[in-house]
Amino acid sequence: MASPKTSIPVLTLLLLLFTFSEAKEFQVGGNENSWNTSTSSESLNHWAENERFEVGDFLIFEYNPKIDSLLEVSKEDYESCKVTNAIKEYKDGKTKVELDKSGPFYFISKAKGSCEKGQKLTVVVLSNKHHHKHSPSPASAPGASAPGAQAPGPALPPYTPPNGAIGSRGGFIGIVVGIVSLVGMIIVF
Questions:
Q1: Is 19 in contact with 3 (CB distance < 8 Å)?
Q2: What is the pLDDT of residue 105?
């Protein structure tokens, strides 16, 4: 059995690691009533552009399941509001969607005419390896375009604190746990 002198710092360090890797849950649009036809897609997409979504985060959509369902669709189906070829369909009224890979996700309402009225959302998920500093890649350097290469996506806005996010990736609690862990290890050893 491990002694308290070694197990306390190890447990504290494990807690610290879990604190920094905690996924966030985002209420779509920043509040409970944002996923509806009275909210424009420009408003929803502006909200999404101001957030930092990472692999493992969750989106929470709330809607009336008697009259609507949520569809995850391709970019083409998003742009044309096509509801017949969904990647996934959710019908429970309070849908929690895991963002399980990096890249864009496209969501539309299945209710007739809702997507055309603006009930749709694009979310771009950053990879776990993403850093907030951007350096040009060789393909985006002037005069270095590869044949068949896609144009780079839109520039990411500067980081702002998330609205509608629940949870944290470290923050104040992570700092406190780290300091307590460090002090505990110094005292024990």
A1: no
A2: 98
